Amino acid sequence: MSRLSADVAVVRGSFELDVSLAVSTGEVVGVLGSNGAGKSTLLGVLAGLHLPSRGEIVLGERTLSSPDGSVPAYRRRVGLLSQQALLFPHLSAIDNVAFGPRSTGAGRRAARETAERWLAEVDASTLADRKPAQLSGGQAQRVAIARALACDPELLLLDEPFAALDVDATPAIRSLLRRVVRATGVTTLMVTHDVLDAVVLADRIVVLDAGRVVESGTTTEVLARPRSAFAARIAGLDLVPGQSCADGLKTDEGTLVAGTHPDPVDDGERAVALFAPASVAVFRDEPGGSPRTALPVRLAAMEPHGELIRLRAAPRPGGPDWLEGLAADVTPAAVAELGVEPGEEVWFAVKAAEVTVHPAGR
């Protein structure tokens, strides 16, 4: 298998992707980000479906794209598995899987033997003679996984491979994909919106925002100490951006968020304050008492969250945008006592001891 190194930019209409990343041989990297962040565009560039406006892509010893030219998609040895299985409707499952080896020069018998082996690997041997229309969503995705790997790719690209599956099929296909990816040792880049996919499959996470890498680290590091709003949301934490100061963090418009500094952060350095929604208390009137940060918000939504109720915040008129989406987890009894409804103005308060301040992502 091969190491991937990419430093590329691509312009698609008004959107510009400018990304530099490296994936070690056999490593699985999860690519996360909100809609429109550039995740699928990145995979398209690596697969050869989009031509970069500048930069270089190197896979193992081969340069796939550079200012001197680009290797066409069919010669890249890059496997792409998307949300939809995209099987050829007129071919049986085994012929779909054999198509890849045949397209790279394998003989008919060798290609069929390879297809049989991969269908067995994904527990789909009994589906060999079925056409795609005779397969369920989970069955079709099993065949698509076999087809992607039957070409012996040096790089496997997964573009939200579980998004189109029903909730019953997803766990089995996720476990299957983890098993075969680990068994083959294929270098893998996986786009996903689901934090569980990253936890189960990824060694490392890269977070994209507006076409740029804003955060990167091991799955544990990113989820325990996120540096971007998107990563904080999927990790279930509240995040406030600003600049580090002696007492915690000061936002760009001057709000002080009191907290501690477990990591070295210089005063004035860009930083983020993190705290758990369960540590947020909610009041109708501005609270006083022990050292705490009190934030005036408008209650945007109330959602069940296990045995608690999650209250979502939005800015009051003229308030800062970073208040949007902050969460507080409170008991149903507390909600009843407050007697609040979406649209009302309340205060979110968090004690300094519950807030940690860390260096911000790029």
UniProtKB/TrEMBL annotation:
**What are the recorded GO MF terms, alphabetically?**
ATP binding
Please give the Pfam families that the UniProt record associates with this protein.
Answer: ABC_tran (PF00005), TOBE (PF03459)
The yes or no answer to whether the keyword Manganese is present is no
Residue ranges of every copy of the ABC transporter domain listed in the record: 1-235
> Per UniProt, which keywords does this protein have?
ATP-binding, Molybdenum, Nucleotide-binding, Transport
* Limits of the Mop domain: 288-359
Task: Tell me the superkingdom of the source.
Answer: Bacteria
| Listed InterPro entries | AAA+_ATPase (IPR003593), ABC_SmlMolc_Importer (IPR050093), ABC_transporter-like_ATP-bd (IPR003439), ABC_transporter-like_CS (IPR017871), Mo/tungstate-bd_C_term_dom (IPR008995), Mop_domain (IPR004606), P-loop_NTPase (IPR027417), Transp-assoc_OB_typ1 (IPR005116)
Q: What is this protein called?
A: ATP-binding cassette domain-containing protein
Q: Which organism is it from?
A: Actinomycetospora endophytica
Query: Species lineage, top-down?
Result: Bacteria, Bacillati, Actinomycetota, Actinomycetes, Pseudonocardiales
